[in-house]
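User: Run a structure prediction on this.
Assistant: Running it now.
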Amino acid sequence: MSKVKVEDLTFSYNQRKMILKNINLEVQKGEWVAILGHNGSGKSTLAKTMVGLLEPAAGHIYIDDILLSEETSYELRKKIGIVFQNPDNQFVGVTVKDDIAFGMENLCFSKEEMLENIDFFAKKVGVFDYLDKEPSLLSGGQKQRVAIAGILAMKTDIIIFDEATSMLDPYAREDLMKYIKKLHEDGLTIIMITHDIEEALFADKLVILKEGKILLEGDKSAVFHQPRLFEDANLELPVALRISNELDGAEFSAWKEYLWAYSLEK
């Protein structure tokens, strides 16, 4: 069953230059899809159209087979949420508790359910001890966890991470990626917008955008076996795979297999 389906999607900010051009994409239930692309490729714009923040010039988006439209956007926000690059842009409350509650308030959750969800998901993402703190006092990684808790508390089962790790230090980034992996193992559908190849290795499927078009799509192994298309999209293969491609001769075949297995195993 497809959780997200994009059909013939185009988008333009000024009605002249098309940022997205005839995008067709399906994300299955429980799948982790990484959407890769260089700056300006359209990947963040695609993410914003999927959650209804931007209206496409043409085409359709379906969430659980329901057409995303002005009439259905309120209901579909219960199904899909987004975590942005800078979590500060998502904070509106005085305390962490207020911020986790914000999305539920907009969806008219009862007070009892809100309080229950705040405690449950704050514990789930590891921010329960910070509920009464100001979000500005938290670290980058903690802020992202609060943003995730707010999405989960709305009972969404699809989360889009739009460059959500790019502002984090290496330790916070590794910690957040481990948590996203756990969410995926728990059955959530994950869409990750990134330019980081190492992060994309966690995904089940890769989609590469270039100049608003899908250049390449498929499982990790199939995509990484086309290095020229990676170069064409101004992306680099993971280090181990670049080394593997440079090895030549039968005597290196075992090393090549090892490097491929090492890169694809996350």
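The chain has a mean pLDDT of 85.
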